[in-house]
Write a structure and sequence with these properties.
This protein has 378 residues and is mainly alpha-helical. The protein has 16 helices and three strands. A hairpin with a 4-residue loop joins strand 1 and strand 2. Bound molecules: acetyl coenzyme *A (ACO) and oxaloacetate ion. Oxaloacetate ion binds next to loops.
């Protein structure tokens, strides 16, 4: 007699898996808060470092707290000679997401507190990851192009240093501001797939490097963080704004996914898109190249008219990063540099009130049967 299948929420759609005090997504108003602050207000009033502090401590820092936080981040940016050798040995055509995942695993092995999963040690490790991941991402990117890595500069703030290690120079303030805004918007988003992965790893008692490496693996997929690079490939495939509508019709005919559109939680618009679009438009002005944003506008209009689907954060972030001069394969690793803050906050929260994450599966395979000896199997 077969039992009735229980109510299965495929993809865990609509399931509350735990409580969390880090951020709140409100799809009914298309809004998002970190620690009670609207994300668009944080973008205008705070820096990425301040937001990182907020996510890890629950409060925005005062001037002295920020200074200490920044000093610690600046002091931890350099990679060990051994890790630099590992990065040098990586295949030239390795995807930077695989490179950063491997670098984080290696950092875990050489971490001075490897094996210590106390809250205090996890927090110190998170700071080392925040500081070192950009250096590793930039070194892998430069080496893949035959360029030598650029050493991080402890005299520079976080965002300026990021451009320094990638390009060997710091751009104008408008570019830094747009990048800083993107880092704030990408920092945290409740129980998305990569964060839930990091929490699941943490729930087993494993250390933060394992949780972050697993989070990076989850983020790489095109349905999640990998969409920001896919968006730019898509924009480059479309000849221009005049062809965008017919290009989309071709996608609809094949029932293909249009990258950078749709979201599991937001069904009437991603809270972060207006702010990121504003700064992507500013980048288009600074660079003097409007074609990507013009094509984007047509795609967004037609997707809404024909499919009632809104863009997600990856849609404006893709062209914004392209206009900032980043190579397309670097877009999702930049997301990693930001999301390490949210992932780590969830690692701390999971660790503080842990229960092993272990749901059930409903078996649909062959009923129990005898094992035939090898000689009797056809
Ligand atoms: C930072 C981030 O991770 S944001 C997400 C980035 N990912 C992308 O941009 C990839 C493209 N988007 C998608 O694949 C999806 O929208 C996801 C994975 C983000 C969300 O998936 P779900 O919550 O499972 O959405 P769901 O599949 O229920 O979508 C509802 C309908 O809209 C369609 N749809 C959703 N997104 C898209 C899209 N981008 N292009 C075309 N159709 C889409 C689905 O095919 C589905 O149609 P159906 O009802 O005829 O089957
Ligand atoms: O929340 C999600 O499912 C995906 C997302 O937008 C994010 O992680 O920023």
């Amino acid at each position: 007699m077969s039992e009735a299948t229980p109510d299965i929420k495929k993809g865990l759609v609509g399931v509350y898996a735990d409580v969390s005090a880090i951020s709140k997504v409100m799809p009914e108003t298309n809004s998002l808060t970190y620690g009670g602050y609207a994300v668009q207000d944080l973008c205008e009033e705070a820096s990425f470092e301040e937001v990182a502090y907020l996510l890890w401590h629950g409060e925005l820092p005062n001037a002295a707290q920020l200074k200490a936080f920044q000093a610690e981040e600046r002091a931890n940016r350099a990679l060990s000679p051994a890790l630099l050798r590992v990065i040098r040995e990586m295949p030239r055509d390795a995807h930077p997401m695989d490179a950063v995942r491997t670098a984080v695993s290696f950092m875990g092995m050489e971490d001075p507190e490897a094996g210590d999963v106390s809250d205090a040690a996890q927090r110190r490790k998170a700071m080392r990851l925040l500081a070192k991941i950009p250096t590793a991402v930039a070194a892998a990117n430069r080496l893949s192009k035959g360029l030598e890595p650029v050493a991080p500069d402890p005299a520079l703030p976080y965002c300026e240093n990021f451009f320094q290690v990638v390009f060997g120079r710091v751009p104008q303030p408008e570019v830094i501001k747009a990048f800083d805004v993107s880092m704030i918007l990408y920092a945290e988003h409740t129980f998305n797939a990569s964060t839930f992965t990091a929490r699941t790893v943490t729930s087993t008692g494993a250390d933060i490097h394992g949780a972050i490496a697993a989070g990076i693996a989850a983020l790489k997929g095109p349905l999640h963080g990998g969409a920001n690079e896919a968006v730019m490939h898509m924009l480059k495939e479309i000849p221009g704004p005049n062809e965008a509508a017919s290009w989309l019709e071709g996608k609809f005919d094949h029932k293909a996914l249009v990258m950078g559109f749709g979201h599991r939680v937001y069904k009437s618009g991603d809270s972060r898109v207006p702010t990121m679009t504003k700064y992507a438009e500013k980048m288009a002005e600074v660079v003097g190249d409007r074609r990507w944003m013009e094509t984007s506008r047509v795609l967004a209009r037609v997707m809404l008219e024909k499919k009632k689907i809104h863009p997600n954060l990856d849609f404006p972030a893709g062209p914004a990063y392209y206009l900032m001069g980043f190579d397309i394969p670097l877009f999702t690793p930049i997301f990693v540099c930001s999301r390490i803050t949210g992932w780590a906050a969830h690692v701390f929260e999971q660790g503080a009130d842990n229960r092993l994450i272990r749901p059930l599966s409903w078996y649909t395979g062959v009923e129990q049967r005898p094992v035939k000896p090898l000689s009797e199997r056809g």
